Amino acid sequence: MAHWRDRQQVAMRRETHFDGRVVSCFTDRPRSVWQMFAATADAHPDQEALAGEEGSVSYFELHERAARLGANFLRDGLKKGDRIAVLLGNRFAFVEIYLACAWAGLVMVPLNTRQPAPEIAYACNQCTAAALVFDTGLAGNIPNKTQITTVLHRYSVGGDVDWAERLDQDAPTQTRFTPSIPTEVDEEDTAVILYTSGTTGRPKGAMLTHFNIVHSALHFAYSMDFEPGDRNLLAVPASHVTGLIANISTALIKGGAIVFLRAFKAADCLALMAREKVTHTLVVPAMYNLFLLTEGFEDYDLSAWKIGGYGGAPMPEATIAEMARRAPHVGLMNGYGATEATSPITMNPHPFAASHSDCVGLVLHCAEVAVMDENGIEVPPGEQGEIWMRGPSIVPGYWDNPEANRENFVGGYWKSGDIGSKDSDGFIRVFDRIKDMLNRGGFKVFSIEVENQISFHPNVMEMAIIGHPCPVLGERVHAVVVPIDADPSDRLAAEIRAFAAERLSDYKVPEAIHFRAAPLPRNANGKIIKTELRKEYA
Question: How many CB atoms within 10 Å of residue 315?
Fold first, then answer.
């Protein structure tokens, strides 16, 4: 089977972790998040670490700030293993807290700034958070003390008091890179709890260990050719796995700069990329489409841009072709993973972006993918089944949720819930979520296939396929379309259906098309929330 390790020779060995999982590991690796960062800061102290509208912070400055903050957390009575919930957007303080928790042996619990108070309270209570850090602008959304009883410490960021002042309160005297000794942790200790963005049931807290994060950061760095001095755009939320691992941790392990974008607007993002000489992006496919629709796209100086990663959804072939025409120097790379995989499990090498546009790539160095049938038996190459993942980036489980652990983890593998295949050359394809596959009169309809074909229509900005219940056929195929034309007509719906009929079997062609002006609803990872669309168009 073709594999990333066949493309790059990296020292590896098999090791036993997490009570008996035997996994391939990088031989030479840091043993904690703090160790990976401290080694980089020691090697590149004057290199820029953080950049954006807040200014610029070097690795030396970031090291001192994070260590000092970690010491302050311990001074306040927090202790190794305590959970700190963090409700912050894309700002420098997020990285400072991430590293401060790593220094102090605390567990960071990033929360989505779009979450309502009940969801914030649920996460804090489920992980029994001892502290909460929040943006002062979100103070009105913070649960009160009776709603989150375990939270004993609250810290606000922003407003009239500069966050930096918090770092200096009664802090011990610092010397270069030796503020004091960081808390010792085991690499299997939990570093971060990320709550899954599932659209059914309660979110589950995936426990990302130091071991998981280090391996995923190295996977990104190796596969995306990330080097010291490269500049990684943070345009997705820092609080979710792509932002935290692909953008932040990858830069920190290699000595690159993290370029912060507070809120995504295509023109503002392109201007920032040009000004900051961004070399790497990893965003959702819809963002590339918005780049291409931005007036004067070619006028931005994007000559430093080398790698354009994407994930969370397939990139429409039309977008890949347009990027190749208008930004040919950018190597597009599709990545596939999940929160439970600490982000990447496969990457598609950029030379294959067009020729294998229907693929999510090859399995990464230390990872394994098995495609299994409903009886837990591996299917032959090319056949469809559920994708199971194993490797050092797969989390040991969910926080305080033994039932979910039994349901989702088998023999060291995590069951993804995605339907896919693996061909004889090792390329992985993902067809749909099991719950999103349609059954129309006994015929399977993979929504991704229909979405990909309709995306070529010149008046489609983005779209999603959903099933509509039918007493005769079981489900009928419906499309929800955000058109480029602000005033779509019945004629456009007919055009799109005819366009689809030229490219798809008749049973896959949408029987109804719903137009909407608002963007499709997405979770913080950029995935379309189809449950909302099903309710809205029921």
Answer: 24
Q: How far apart, in whole angstroms, are the C-alpha atoms of residue 190 and residue 212?
A: 9
Q: Under the phi-then-psi rule, with left for phi > 0, alpha for psi from -120 to 50, and beta for the rest, what region is 20?
A: left
Within a 10 A sphere around the Cβ of 370, how many other Cβ atoms? 18
**Could you give the residue ranges of the DSSP H alpha helices within 277-432?**
285-293, 317-326, 402-408
Specify the pLDDT at position 174: 42
Q: What is the pTM of this model?
A: 0.88
Mean pLDDT in consecutive groups of 10 residues from the start of the chain, 538 residues = 80 96 97 98 97 97 94 92 97 97 98 89 97 93 94 87 52 46 96 79 92 98 96 95 96 98 96 98 90 95 97 80 96 95 95 90 96 96 96 98 96 94 95 83 82 89 90 87 82 92 90 92 77 88
Q: What is the DSSP string of 241-265?
A: HIIIIIIIIHHHHHTPEEEE-SS--
Q: What phi and psi values does residue 281 have, to the nearest 5 degrees?
A: -130, 150
Q: Collapsing DSSP states into helix, strand and coil, what is residue 384?
A: coil
Dihedral angle computed from the Cα positions of residues 220, 224, 227 and 231, in that order, rounded to the nearest 10 degrees: -90
Beta bridge partners of 125: none
Angle ∠(264,269,271) on CA atoms, nearest 5:
150
Q: How far apart are CA 113 and CA 117, in angstroms?
A: 10
Distance CA 167, CA 66 (A): 8
CA count, 13 A, side-chain hemisphere, 96:
25
| CA atoms 310, 517, 299, 357: torsion sign | positive
The confidence score (pLDDT) of residue 197 equals: 64
- Assess contact for 445 and 437: CB atoms under 8 A: yes
Residue 87 belongs to what H/E stretch?
Answer: strand 83-87
CA distance 161 to 76: 19
Do 273 and 302 touch, CB atoms closer than 8 A?
yes
> Helices 447-454 and 490-501: crossing angle, nearest 10°?
110
Question: What does the alpha-carbon distance between residue 211 and residue 232 come to, in Å, rounded to a whole number?
Answer: 22
Q: Helix, strand or coil for residue 507?
A: helix
Longest distance between any two alpha carbons in the chain, whole Å:
75
What own/partner pairs with CB < 8 Å and gap ≥ 24 does 136-139 have? Answer: 138/87, 138/113
Which pLDDT does position 201 carry in this prediction?
A: 63
- Count Cβ atoms below 10 Å from residue 497 Cβ, excluding itself: 16
Task: Please report, for residues 202, 205, 383, 491, the alpha-carbon distance to residue 123 in angstroms, rounded to integers and kept in the order given.
Answer: 10, 8, 39, 47
Calpha distance 130→153 (Å, rounded): 7
